[in-house]
Amino acid sequence: MVTPHIFVSSPRLFLALTFVATALTLEAAPLTQPIAPVHPVTDTYFGTPVVDPYRWMENLKSSEVQDWMKGQNNYTRDYLSHLPGRDDLIKRIESLDNASNRIGGLSLYGSRYFYFKITPQDQTPKLYARDGLKGEERLLADPQVLGDASDWAKKIKAAARKNGDKAPPMRFTISDFYPTEDGKLVAVEIAAGGSEEGVLLILDASNGKPLSDSIDRVWGSSVSWDTSDKFFYYTRLQKLGPNDSPLNKELDEASYLHHLGDNPDKDTVALSRKAFPTLGMVPTDSAYVSTTPGSPYVLGIISHGVKNELTLAISPADAAAKGAPVWTKFVDVDDDVTSGTIMGHEMWLLTHKDAPKFKVLHLDLDHPDIGKADVALPASDLVVQGISTAKDGLYIEAQQGGISHLLRIPYDSFHVSLPGKVTALPVTLPFAGAIEGFYTDIGLDGALIRYAGWTEAPQWYSYDPASDKLTNTEIEPLNPTDFSAITSVEVTAPAADGTPVPLSIIYRKDLPMNGQNPCLMEGYGAYGMSLDPNFDATRLALLEKGIIIAYAHVRGGGENGEDWHLAGQKLTKQNTIGDFIACAEYLIKQGYTSPSKLAGRGTSAGGILIGGALTQRPDLFALCIVNVGVSDALRMEAGPNGAVNTPEFGSVKDADGFKALYAMDAYQHVKDGTAYPAVLLITGANDPRVDPWELFKMTARLQAANSSKNPILLRIDYDAGHGIGSSKTQRDLITADQAALLLSRAALAPAPATQK
Predict the structure, then answer these.
(1) pTM score of the predicted model
(2) Cα separations (Å) of 359 from 229, 309, 373?
(3) What is the secondary structure of 665-678 as a DSSP string?
(4) Which of 201, 215, 525, 733 could form a disulfide with 21 if both were Cys (CB 3.0 to 4.6 A apart)?
(5) Helix 574-589 vs helix 655-664: angle between axes, to the nearest 10 degrees?
(6) Is residue 689 within 8 Å of residue 722, measured between CB atoms?
């Protein structure tokens, strides 16, 4: 099964491209920012002493830290609230955000469709179901109602009261949902306050009523049901003892077998490091078990932190169902496999082994020898991003130059063609855009596809292989927002080493390219992930104001395949930063904007990118936005989510890892007496991916070092985490704050002396 949901994100990655905010009522803000005292701590790494002046901020329970946080946040909120035009921006953004319903995660189980929907009246998505596309829609799960009624939430509130606190108000979101194959039951994962860790509940899909089952300590549970509807496999965080370090929280994540009605604390381990030592797992590995209807095997998936390459094993399904799986490992990390999909006794694997843009292998699971696998789809100019199985064939998602392609290979082709000679049939897509959601089922022909572009609103299409046609399901109303005055272009900017860096630019058609336009440029560059074309109606509020929006597809991402990813990882991370700087220089040189009107933004792992650009080229920007961003890479391993991210960034436990992390640590490269541009640093108090103290330390260091009068602002949301699960109001407010701050900084600067 493939069930991608556009409203959720994969656990563990430092990733969030949504924005955090708060609707809290604030006390009167002080007129000055609190000054952080310096208490230096010196660490020595491989003979190199490194001074950390604000290590004390890592203790978030400290009253000194809490008081400093409050003072900083109050000052920032007051500053932002007085920005000219901010209130009008908020109204416009809210109006655009509420223009229509949005549908995500559309999937079909049996004859029942499941999907997320967020209406103009909603703050977060709710889960809906309908029998058939034309069937009557019914609300299946409201996360707030479901969360408030759960024993899990009651225990959290009781624990708070026991500590002398008031029962905290809690805002709940649905992280993901997992229906049974016949659509009769659905497992729903609920999280609170942006924390992402939550509880797994089981609902009757005919009426939404919960069963007795409730499983806590889940964060990306990846439920996989047996076709009997009586049991499923799921993944759970370990239970820490009173003397265990909180750094162990994300270690030894295991897969369990759960029978409905059983006590989850007595569930049988299906796959884990400790239960199956011969598989060679380490503590930072996570285990998942996946079933496929009609296949005699279950698949064991071992992920190695955030590393894309997987270890795979199979077990007879009947043995696993009895709680005694017999695992046979057939794919290891060196095989460079990043995903796979099963149909009966066959499997297809996506790998970049000797194929930087990826190829697809075909394997017989009865004789699982990857060395003898056929090449189902050889490498080409397309970057293959995903594979999935339907009843009629294998579907392949790919992209080239940021534009999606969809291919289909009928199963018969694998049996009548010579190895490596299989013909992939292209599926014609509506326009040059990107696939935002994709779903297939091995019991059904065709696929469901959510498709959008920078200026084209998303729609869900159904693909029929018999007629080779896409049909609009009309389940998602077409967003009425008028983008007819907006255009987008795809260009390349030359990097310092001459490498062409893809750059997407979106702007109002009537703008003169005279260097006077404010511009907001985003970059990411990590994990091999791509910034694909997407539609955001609220973007129009910025574009109407003459703001140019650009996306730099820097190295470290996956836009040009695995080589592109590796060229911005660990010791090559400077390429990520340098590419972003090169894109900024291109926008200036071509007259799109000027340094006094350019804002750079990096989110999550993109904090490394924007932090590096800020410290290396402070003259290039009017504003830098560090959004829940990694700012103190050298200390990442001091947080629970740090160890699992070492495959991407490196570890201070080895010399090369230290060298890489120190080079990408923006906090360590802030220089006293430097005239920095305005900086807005954004964090959520419940962020489980990038510890808030990284942003605190960066704020304090910049405020102490800055020789300009430009503001260094820290924005904290006490009811948010990494931005995943944030409410619509939270996202709208932070979008308005960023736009208003950019416009105010750009207005301070005179027009460039030379105009193009």
Answers:
(1) 0.93
(2) 35, 14, 12
(3) -SGGG--TTB---E
(4) 733
(5) 30
(6) yes
Residues facing residue 232 across a β-bridge = 225, 258
Q: Is 190 exposed, middle or buried (0-12, 13-18, 19+ CB in 10 A)?
A: buried
Answer for the pair 392, 465: CB distance below 8 angstroms, yes or no.
yes
**What DSSP element (H or E) covers 210?**
strand 210-218
40-98 confidence digits (pLDDT tens): 999 999 999 999 999 999 999 999 999 999 999 999 999 999 999 999 999 999 999 99
Residue type, 294: G
- At 133-144, the pLDDT tens digits run 999 999 999 999
pLDDT tens per residue across span 701-747: 999 999 999 999 999 998 888 888 888 999 999 999 999 999 999 99
Domain 102-221 -> CATH class: mainly beta
Instruction: Report the alpha-carbon distance of residue 14 to residue 12 in Å, rounded.
Output: 6
**Beta carbons of 517 and 597 less than 8 angstroms apart:** yes
CB-based burial label for 212 (10 Å; 0-12, 13-18, 19+): exposed
Give the count of beta carbons closer than 10 Å to the beta carbon of residue 409: 23
Both tokens assigned to 689: 């991916």
CB 738 within 8 A of CB 680: yes
CB neighbour list of residue 491: distance below 8 Å, 6 or more residues apart: 502, 503, 505, 586
Could you tell me which residues are beta bridge partners of residue 461? Answer: 449, 472
Check pLDDT > 50 for residue 24: no
Q: How confident is the model at residue 153 (pLDDT cuts 50, 70, 90)?
A: confident
Q: Nearest Cα to 590, choosing from 508, 509, 491?
A: 491
Distances (CA, A) of 399 to 441, 490, 596: 22, 14, 35
Tokens of 61: 């329970």
* Model pLDDT for residues 530-576, shown as the tens digit of each residue: 999 999 999 999 999 999 999 999 999 999 999 999 999 999 999 99
pLDDT of 201: 97
- CB proximity list for 709: less than 8 A, separation 6 or greater: none
Domain at 481-748: CATH code:
3.40.50.1820
**Number of alpha carbons in the 13 Å side-chain half-sphere of residue 469:** 5
Q: How is 474-507 classified by DSSP, letter by letter?
A: --SPPP----TTEEEEEEEEE-TTS-EEEEEEEE
- In sequence order, the β-bridge partners of residue 337 are 351
- Of 371, 376, 382, give the one whose Cα is nearest residue 360: 376
Question: 3-state DSSP call for residue 597?
Answer: helix
- β strands within 64-197, DSSP E: 102-109, 112-118, 126-131, 138-141, 172-179, 185-192
Domain layout of the chain by residue ranges: 102-221, 481-748
Q: Is 613 helix (H, G, I), strand (E, B) or coil?
A: helix
* Rounded Cα–Cα distance for residues 345 and 355 (Å): 26
> DSSP E strands: which ranges in 53-125?
102-109, 112-118
Q: Return d(Cα 424, Cα 364) in angstroms, integer.
A: 20
DSSP 528-585: T--------TTHHHHHHTT-EEEEE--BTBSTT-HHHHHTTSGGGTHHHHHHHHHHHH
Which residue from 96, 114, 97 is spatially nearest to 105, judged by alpha carbons? Answer: 114
Which pLDDT belongs to residue 686? Answer: 87
Position 392 pLDDT exceeds 80:
yes
Per DSSP (E only), the strands in 344-485 are 346-351, 359-364, 374-377, 383-389, 393-400, 403-410, 425-427, 434-439, 447-452, 459-464, 469-472
Q: What is the pLDDT of residue 418?
A: 54
The total of other beta-carbon atoms located within 10 Å of residue 301's CB is 21
Token pair, residue 259, equals 């029978």
In angstroms, how far apart are the furthest CA atoms of the chain? 76
Q: Tokens representing 671? A: 């220089």
In the block, tokens 């696939």 appear at 435
